Amino acid sequence: MTHDTTESPRADGSGGTEPPGAAQSLRADETDFSSTDETDSSPTDETDPPSRTTRRGLLRIGGTGLALGGAVGSAGCLSALPPLGGGQRYGRIDAPASDDPEYARWVPAPWDEVSEDDYFGFGAARPGTAPRVPHLLAWRRASTVCSLDYFGVGWASYDRYVWTPAGSVLTGSFEAKTVRDTLGGTAYRPAGDYREYDLFERPDGRRVAVRDGTLLFVTPDDEHPDLERLADTGAGAHPRLVDANDAAATVVERASESTRVSAAREFGAFHEAAAWGADGFRVGDDGVYQVITLVFPSPDTITLDELQTAYRERTGLVEAWTQEADSFDAQMDERVATLETRVPEGDLRRFDAVAEPVQATWGFEWDAAERALTIRHEAGASADPNRLTVDIDTDEAPYRHDDRPVWTDVDRVEPGAETTLDLGAVTGLESVGLDLRRVGEDGWSYWNLAGWRAPTVDGGEGGDHS
User: Fold this and answer.
1) Which of 7, 66, 321, 415 sits most deeply, having the most CB atoms within 10 A of its CB?
2) Which pLDDT belongs to residue 4?
């Protein structure tokens, strides 16, 4: 039974005894969206992409835009490296060695639908590594966890997470049956098979391919979603990027694979000069190192002095990272540059104490006649209702947050719980986002969990997806 609230949701989320799975309603005509905070919750150095698709795509790959800000948009700027404090210094840093980039087998070479001007980013993360992290790595990891659907296997149980323009890959020791059983309780439906994978899809465009130990996940938020091409690349039937582009192969080889590495062409603050770049985190005995690798078209593209100046003034590292770091370094080797920082062990924090992300599958159902949107928790971790908020995107007011809980009178939002938003009073509706308010006060205020696009009759792109 749908519960239609007659009062505005209470900010503290306190209330009666509705069970966790109870359906509820939030009336938009009692929520003053025109007065909510219209500032986006992004870090100061990430650009503000023009659409939810782009924004959620960046979130799903874990905030690559932080280091690649100049490559993904034209609005916004990169933060400057702060003046050195008493405990900070510039000098040679010897970051620990990293591993061979095994993830590169999944990264496809550009295909016909990918133009030379398109953003092309990829990378990999190891979920079970680095329990103690600097702030920036914690944020990127948490944003990735929040943006993934739940497939019966929790984030920490995967061995590797790979993202590409075509989609994402999750590998580990799980059985395909676990994933199939979990998807059976959601809006995913069987869709045949491809190669050795069982396929599943949703009306909103999300698709999954699974076999024992490997899961492919494609959403409309990917730059060029193509599940079959992703499977073909893994099988060696489609050319891999490292075999088709020398500069990309160089940056992948030099950056290697570590706790987390992000790569792209036309990279960050150096996008006008660097052909490809990568941003990685490596764990050492004395702290966590951030290593940026840049491949320039030729050795004379930029001098070491110019590189060091750019590194100090336009590095693209957010303030929270540089405040923690105690050392900085810039080196040139022919056409390859290496930029390094280190956060000492004593300044690292436990990931689970810094961030409390939620990995879950969320679904949306639009009632055009009533102009009501139902949000449903389909599978995965429960959530604190006091941390769940929505942002409403209209043609005149993009991404306005309403910080009052969308679920009221429940202690936890569990699988099966749903709530209905009455959007009858909202004009020019384009999209609705479900967000998780983050624990800390610094950096981003929210992580995006899911998003829905309004039908084209309202000026939106049509359909829904999360």
Assistant:
1) 66
2) 35
Token couple for 79: 């933060």
Q: Are 464 and 204 in contact (CB under 8 A)?
A: yes
The 10s digit of each residue's pLDDT in 1-15 is 333 322 232 222 222
Residue 151 has pLDDT above 80, yes or no: yes
Pairing of strands 418-422, 23-27: parallel
Burial 172-199 (b: 16+ CB within 10 A, else e): bebebeebbebbeebbbeeeeeeeebbb
Residue 265 DSSP SS3: strand
CA–CA dist 33, 45 (Å, integer): 26
Q: Cβ neighbours of residue 218 under 8 Å, at least 6 residues apart?
A: 166, 167, 168, 206, 207, 208, 225, 226, 227, 230
**Residue 260 and residue 125 in contact, taking contact as beta carbons nearer than 8 Å:** yes
Chain-centroid distance of CA 397 in Å reads 23
Tokens read off for 460:
């939106």
**Residue linked to tokens 């609705």:** 432
CA dist 313 → 31, 207, 218, 316 (Å): 43, 42, 37, 9
Which of 180-194, 326-340, 386-400, 434-448 is the most confident on average? 180-194
Q: Give the type of residue at 45.
A: D
Question: What's the confidence (pLDDT) of residue 313?
Answer: 61
Residues 270 and 310 sit within 8 Å (Cβ to Cβ)? yes
Q: Does the predicted TM-score (pTM) go above 0.90?
A: no
Residue 103: which of 252, 227, 228 has the closest Cα? 252
CA distances from 283 to 8, 137, 171, 213, 260 (A): 47, 11, 21, 26, 10
275-301 confidence digits (pLDDT tens): 899 989 888 888 888 888 999 988 888
Q: Which of 32-41, 124-133, 223-232, 409-418 has the lowest mean pLDDT?
A: 32-41
What pLDDT shows up at residue 47?
28
- Of 220, 258, 219, 265, give the one whose Cα is nearest residue 107: 265
Other beta carbons less than 10 A from residue 415's beta carbon: 18
Rounded Cα–Cα distance for residues 432 and 428 (Å):
12
Residue pair 466/362 in contact (Cβ under 8 Å)? The answer is yes
DSSP string covering 55-113: HHHHHHTTSGGGTSHHHH-SS--PPPPPPP-TT-EES---PPP-B--GGGGG-BPP-TT
- Does the structure show a pLDDT above 60 at 394? yes
160 membership: H or E segment, kind and range: strand 158-164
